[in-house]
Amino acid sequence: MANFSKSTVPQFSVEVYQNEFLPEGGREVNAIVTVASTGGGTLGGAPLTASAAPSSIPGRAPAAAVVVMVDCSGSMDYPPTKMRNARDATAAAIDTLRDGVSFAVVAGTHIAREVYPGNGRLATADSRTRAQAKEALRKLSAGGGTAIGTWLRLADRLLGAADVPIRHGILLTDGRNEHESPEDLHAALAACAGRFTCDARGVGTDWEVKEVTSIASALLGTADIVADPANLAADFTRMMEHAMGKEVADVALRLWTPVGVEIKFVKQVAPTVEELTSRRTEAGPRAGDYPTGSWGDESRDYHVCVEVPRANVGQEMLAARVSLIVPGPDGGAPQVLSQGLVRAVWTDDMAASTSINPQVAHYTGQAELAQVIQQGLDARKSGDVDGATAKLGRAVQLAAASGNGDTAKLLAKVVDVVDEATGTVRLKAKVAEADEMTLETRSTKTVRVKK
User: What is the pLDDT of residue 49?
Assistant: First the structure.
């Protein structure tokens, strides 16, 4: 390990956890890949390229840009305190910006309007521009419809004009996207994907969970509910602090597989479950890249599942090579930050070949937990009591077994738990809408493997 220095970029590491042993003829190989970024590493002495340059090297301007998109539709006036809370939250986010970061504020209705600084520009954060931006926020008022795709496209134009590696959006909505078609929103997300990351928040309980989570998923950000508008300022401050901690952009997980090996799936499994399989972009013979977005000082886990050719006892092979990469300078060869290997070894030792790696078992359960919560809530909404009870009961069982206490608490607001070990539950007769939406929005959040 290289010595850390505040003047250098984060150091990345890749660790692979798996049971590499297969029975004769066995084909499926599962591995959990843990990627960690720790601040100030030297990456083997090689500086990162400009596309992934650190945003906090002393003497260098922070290489980041942020656009805050605030819902100003008519529903934000009910109650009137909601609009005031949104203004206060945006002001708190602006106060959290580091000096030198480029930023803008967009008001979103059935159209998107630049609130500050205007004229298609970004401002540079300092005491003067922060004060000007907060003064501009005082003029925000509620009125009009909701067309989130237009907000995202304006944010993309503004962020695209910034010559910085870290581009980030924060989006707040309190209602459903009723003034554009789902196809229009999908097209906007497709156009923005890979160009900037975006955290999305729903305030109150009149918005659509799947809309907000789809925005965060497509743009590799976070999604959450802020049921009480009074909590917006604290949430916006945390989001902006997290965004300001990002130092390396456009990081991808590159998976290379030998001839005859097929990739069954690639998914992020911590801190949230996020399907990446369909986001693959080809990267040369038998190699593909899966986007992971921007990184600060953090750790994430990925589940890789591949299918290898059948083989006899005693044979072994490299099933996959996992590399963490960033773009090279001027479109050149990408820079490899770290690598890990996934292996397959065929054995006649039944104990070895039937053992499930603890990390693989844990995250398989966490992925199922997210799935059955969604299925259970969908069944509940459709009036399928038996289906909802079965799925949410299974969720209670999985949450208890994995130690996912936060999800267990959310489930307990939707069902009465009779026996968590067996997943025996009863649906509550009355459930607060905020509680149900919170469970749905946070269903993909996972816990790490117990040590």
Answer: 43
